[in-house]
Amino acid sequence: LIQTLTIVGVGLIGGSIGLAAKRRGLAGHVVGVGRQRPSLDEALAVGAVDEVSLDLAEAATRSDLMVFCTPVDRIVEQVLSVAERCRPGTLLTDAGSTKAAIVQGIEGKLPKDVHLVGSHPLAGSEKKGPRFADPELFENRLTAVTPTPSTDPAAVKRTVTFWKSLGSRVKIMSPDDHDRALALTSHLPHLVASALAGMMPDDLRELCATGFRDTTRVAAGDPSIWTGIFQQNREALVIALTAFGSRLEFFLRALEKNDRTVLDALLAQAKRNRDALGS
Amino acid sequence: LIQTLTIVGVGLIGGSIGLAAKRRGLAGHVVGVGRQRPSLDEALAVGAVDEVSLDLAEAATRSDLMVFCTPVDRIVEQVLSVAERCRPGTLLTDAGSTKAAIVQGIEGKLPKDVHLVGSHPLAGSEKKGPRFADPELFENRLTAVTPTPSTDPAAVKRTVTFWKSLGSRVKIMSPDDHDRALALTSHLPHLVASALAGMMPDDLRELCATGFRDTTRVAAGDPSIWTGIFQQNREALVIALTAFGSRLEFFLRALEKNDRTVLDALLAQAKRNRDALGS
């Protein structure tokens, strides 16, 4: 049991952590911290938190576990701004979609007995705000937990237990492995969906059916959040994008040559991979 | 009322046409024609057709309206193989995702009083077979009907009425306009989803969450059907793919320069376009 769980940033992910923690009896008291009153009030209204606060530093002084669910490019600054206020034993973790920049930006800068362990629950959607929070969001999803060789092993264990208690499976990875993998599985698809959606002329909108809608759905995500993710993982994303460009070249050559065999092979491999994923 | 409606190819689309026509009392008798017994039996079992047949030429002799729901690269040959058997007044249409090659391949080669009007209902999914047929599939969807200057106006009118009677809205377009538009709204997204799915290493599968699943869903479609579509629309698809490549270059340059302003603008434009589409 966590006595006081503080969730910094009560959007879809933060709100879902609160709902899941309360429903599962995981936390005695859940504090939601944010910068904007309306979003905090909404989190309170949906029952995701017991108390809301605009004062991050004050909340830090009485937290046992703090989860930072803010945009990736704000997490380092927020963690470092409050670390000195935390009591010994406080565990800090996050839900950011990039890990290396966050973990490296904090490691070695925390007081003794205050620990950060990077996390990334692979859950969420293009929707935004605590009204879309879902206590089952983490059920059977995977959360990446990303310690480094210097991370305190007991803190890693507590972090793993936390996510498992919310219903998630957990995979331990290094921050760099995480970022390289997510560049391919998440950040590149977001970029590609955004490129497709962005180039669509308005007058063709009525001709966009289910296929287009599915393929571009994530492009409805918050641009400022995704710009931060792209910037923090830009090295791996450039590599992924370049590999994707090469793959598109295969399709282009096959189309130019009208090569049925190659087109068939490319589409069949894609189908095998996609079928293996399930719906 | 259509006395005898013949559906050639009773997969998801053909089966849905049969279910919708029967439920709406649109056809006195619905014949399903195919090449494989199991799929025909399934169409009969789900109630999509009243009768099944392996004999396309015989079915043609007693049809008032024939809808070809076969792969785009088989439609021209099938239509031309049976046109001479049709009674005067028989209307032929199709549900193919490309239009110019089909319409041009048939136009001028039909007997007097047998008419083809190209159609493309923008409905369907990556699923396959009559067991996924849905009588509501065309409800509020758009069907493109693609006459040319030589198409019989009364036949166009009957085709429009047919699709509207199935619940669809109808848009009249030239075959070339259709193909250029669908290259962007459907064929390019399919190619892009397939490129993404195809390049994903097996060991990253567990890290593919909702975003990846949505973005690549259509890649589960039948490769042989999509190879035919790509080949029939390859000129427009090459142009669309080249434009998409240029758009990816904007992202690549912005990432290389770490240019937050440009990344934000690209993602914001994508979000505006995607939001305008609705879920």
Q: Briefly, what is this?
A:
By secondary structure, chain A is of the alpha/beta class. The first copy, chain A, is 50% helix and 15% strand.
* Residues in β-strands, percent of chain A: 5-15%
> What is the quaternary state of this protein?
homodimer
Number of helices of chain A: 11
Terminus-to-terminus distance of chain A: 35 Å
Cα Rg of chain A: 21 Å
Question: Could you say which overall geometry of chain A the principal axes of the C-alpha atoms support?
Answer: globular
Give unreliable regions of chain A as ranges. none
Could you give the order of the helices and strands of chain A? EHEHEHEHEHEEHEHHHHH
- How many beta-strand runs of chain A? 8
Largest interface, per-chain counts?
A-B, 84 and 83 residues
Structural class of chain A: alpha/beta
Percent helix of chain A: 40-55%
- Mean model confidence by pLDDT of chain A: 97
Biggest beta-sheet profile of chain A: 8 strands, mixed
As laid out across the biggest beta sheet of chain A, the strand order is 3-2-1-4-5-6-7-8
Q: What features would you describe in this structure?
A:
The structure is a homodimer of 279-residue chains. Chain A is α/β, with parallel strands linked by helices and 279 residues long. The first copy, chain A, has helices at 12-23, 37-45, 56-60, 72-82, 100-106, 153-165, 175-198, 210-216, 223-232, 234-256, 260-277, and strands spanning 2-8, 27-33, 51-53, 65-68, 91-94, 115-121, 142-146, 169-172. In chain A, strands 3-2-1-4-5-6-7-8 form an eight-stranded mixed sheet, with helices on both faces. In chain A, helix 2 links the parallel strand 2 and strand 3 (51-53). The first copy, chain A, is globular and about 65 Å long. At the A-B interface, helix 7, helix 8, helix 9, helix 10 and helix 11 of A face helix 7, helix 8, helix 9, helix 10 and helix 11 of B.
